[in-house]
Amino acid sequence: EGLLDEGTEDFADFRMKCSDLIKDVVFIVSSSAVFQQMYMLLQTASVSNVTWDQMEAALFIMQAIARNILPHENEVVPKVVEAILNMPETVHINMRYTSVMLLGELCEWISHEQHSETLEPILNYLQYCLRQPNLAAVTAKSLHSICTTCRHHMVKHLSGLIEILKVVDMLNLPNDVAIGLLKGVAVIVAEVPEEHVYKAIKEICGRQLSPLLALVESTSEKTVPETNTSTDPIYWLDRLSAILRHLATKSNNEKDPCVVAIVEMWPSMSKICTRYKTDSRITEHFCRCLRFMIRLVSRSTTALLAPVAQQVSAFYQEIKQNMLYTIILCRWRIYIK
Q1: What pLDDT score does 154 carry?
Q2: Residue 165 half-sphere exposure, CB side, CA atoms within 13 Å?
Q3: CA 64/CA 16 separation, integer angstroms
Q4: Dist. CA 120–CA 234, nearest whole Å
Q5: Which parts of the chain register pLDDT below 50?
Q6: pLDDT at position 277
Q7: Residue 10: which domain range?
Q8: pLDDT at 13
Q9: The pLDDT of residue 319
Q10: Are 248 and 159 part of one and the same domain?
């Protein structure tokens, strides 16, 4: 059987409208009361004739209101989380799918200091779900929510997240979903102790640069990439842009590990720029990526500015019709100021 949220457009729209209605109703009856009622329904499942779709409906209602739950709620939510983490292997795929959604929506509750001990088992559960094709996309979205909201607590789990990134490309995730996960990891990298920043940035950026450089080496100017696939440089450039946009330096000096890692990326970026200089579609995305690089380091060092200016100027003289280089120069001046 397929996933409910991937059914017909009409049914997906119906579920969305139901979710909106539930969010309106809870302001009258309170989120905690609804959560309690849904949990009681799940509890009776083992002794009554409650079907999987009824249990999934209860989980669906919970995920619709999860962000309204007060962070200090300590009676029902911990039991719900425990029940999700202990779901049997044989549970219906739609129940597991909605449970993953629920965990993502509980991100603010998880981020509360009182519940930080639940983070590790939740991450282990999501890592398990991420490896299941039908659950990969929704799991990545939930991980993004948790990474962004629980960034301070997630620092000690960074190595595990980087391991997760290593398998992302094997999961055939939509690129926007993968980008969301990369954003979440980049936000956490910005929080880690300074001595770990350089290695983390090299790892997550390198996983985007390596395929780009492979494309540079293996394709010619006549090669037409297939859009929205890993054979398209834009696929990787957009991922890299998302990472660079959410990183942050810890100090305004050229020895900052983030600055060092970004400056070291330029030779690779230069090769990419040279290879695709005549393709305005790819160049536009490259310029966007370069803009985030410059914005990230321009207040700390000029080491990146001179080689970028030299290459951009040379290409502009060579390909005058490509006005994107002028655009990037204008933006560049803004960041130098």
Answers
A1: 92
A2: 25
A3: 9
A4: 34
A5: 323, 326, 330, 333-337
A6: 83
A7: 1-164+176-191
A8: 85
A9: 64
A10: no
Number of domains in the chain: 2
* pLDDT value of position 26: 84
Dig out the tokens for 221 from the structure: 């100017």
**Residues 181 and 268 occupy one common structural domain:** no
Query: Long-range CB contacts (< 8 A, 24+ apart) of 258-263?
Result: 258/197, 258/198, 258/201, 258/296, 258/297, 259/296, 259/297, 259/300, 259/301, 260/198, 261/197, 261/198, 261/201, 261/202, 261/205, 262/201, 262/293, 262/296, 262/297, 262/304, 263/297, 263/301, 263/303, 263/304
CA–CA separation, 215 vs 38, rounded Å? Answer: 51
| Residue with the two structure tokens 């619709």 | 64
The whole-angstrom separation of Cα 15 and Cα 4 is 9
Which residue in the block uniquely carries the two structure tokens 């190595």?
159
Write out 73-108 in H/E/C secondary structure: CCCCHHHHHHHHHCCCCCCCHHHHHHHHHHHHHCHH
224: in domain:
no
Q: What is the CA radius of gyration of the chain?
A: 23
Give me the pLDDT at residue 325, please: 52
Residue count of the chain, please give it.
337
184 and 297 fall within a common domain: no
First to last CA, the chain: 57
- In terms of domains, do 236 and 147 share one? no
Q: Which residues contact 320 (CB under 8 A, 6 or more apart)?
A: none
Same domain, 117 and 206: no
Cα–Cα dist 260/297, whole Å:
9
**For residues 97 and 184, what is the distance between their CA atoms, to the nearest angstrom?**
20
Token readout for 77 is 């939510």
At position 29, the amino acid (one-letter code) is V
The CA distances from residue 266 to 22, 26, 274, 293, 328, in Å, are: 50, 52, 12, 9, 16
**Sign of the CA dihedral running 244, 247, 248, 250:** negative
Residue 52 is assigned to a structural domain of this protein: yes
